[in-house]
Each structure stands twice: as C-alpha cells, then as structure tokens.
Description:
Layout: H1 2-22, E1 24-32, H2 35-50, E2 56-57, E3 64-74, H3 78-90, E4 95-99, E5 101-105, E6 113-117, H4 123-136, E7 150-155, E8 171-175, E9 177-186, E10 191-201
Antiparallel strand pairs: 1-3, 1-9, 2-7, 4-8, 5-6, 6-7, 9-10
Helix pairs in contact: 3-4
Amino acid sequence: MGGSRRSASSAARIRICVDDRDKKRRLFVGVELDDAARAACAAVAEQLRGTGFAAKYESAEKLHVTLAFLGNVGANQYEAVAAALDGVAAQTAPFALTLDKVGAFPHERKPRVVYIGAREQGASFRKLAQSVRGSYAPLGFQFDDDSVTHVTIARVKDPRTPLRSVEFAPISFEMGSLSLFESLFDPEVHTSRYDVARVAALSAV
C-alpha cells in the first residue's frame, strides 16, 4: 500500500512537471496607454456605439497599441521572448504617437476589427514595429502583414454594415515602454483579459 502511494505521488509530480513544461501562453507585444489616452479612446468607442453600429466593444482596460501577435508560446521559449523585448526597448528612444482616425480590418466596407489609428504612421513607429518583428523572426515567429498603428475598440461578428464615420480630437501620448501581454480567458465575464507579463522601458538616447 505504501509503495502504491509513493508511486502515485511520483507520477503526479512527473505529470505536473510535464504540464508546466508544455504549458503555452498566448502572448503579444504592444504598448499600454496612459490614463488620458485610454479614456479618450474609450470615449471614441462610445461615440461609435452611439451611431448604432453593431459590434462587440472592448472594455476600456483592454485598450492598447498592438505591435506583434506572437500566438501560443511554449514555456521553453518565454525567456527568449522576454529577452527580445528587452533588447528592442534598450535600442529605442521614447516618442510621441497621435491617433486621429477610426479604421477597420480588413477594410471599412466590411469591417471585422474596428480600431483607432493614425493617418500618419510616422518613422519612429515604423522603425519600432520593424525592430520588434525583426527580433522575433529568428525565434521562429512569422508575421504576414506590416504593422499598422491601431488600438482595437470593437469586433464585428457579421460584417455586413460599413463602418460608421466618427469625428474626434486627436489623441496624443508618449510611447515610453513596450509590454508583453498575455491573453487569458476570464470565466467570470466569459471573455479574455490581458495581463501584462513584462514591461521594458524605451531607454535609448
């Protein structure tokens, strides 16, 4: 009997170790908004909702600028992913970004993802996006499309209605750090939440 208990306990420990080793985390790289920019983006989303445009709107706490979606990342890759984030941040100086338009992917006639973006991407943002994606390519990550400045505010299940026009004052804020976000399912609200797994300050001079 005692031997059986030890065997079962050992098997459980082995199973836990294997589960931890194989556990994948759904990660992406982006930039957190400051409080003022977050509130302004949330207000734009409410304006769009007020036009009657049907969509699933993101909560204010989930709003962020997306740079690179990494997908499901194994535990054995996490340290390399974090180091790549730190490396890009150390070589990038902070810069200002201005959001001044509402757009949609794949296009505004049949929108699936609605975002607040920038008419002018700016050289600093393009360089940062290229650096982020370039740092992850050697780790096996692939990106099909060029990065576009965007803060996702809504998702459309049945994109039959063209995107409504919304006017708003430009939203400016400083891109001062990079964040590694983890997407986790929250059973209490039956949707995902985004936890910040790592932050790296843009520190080049």
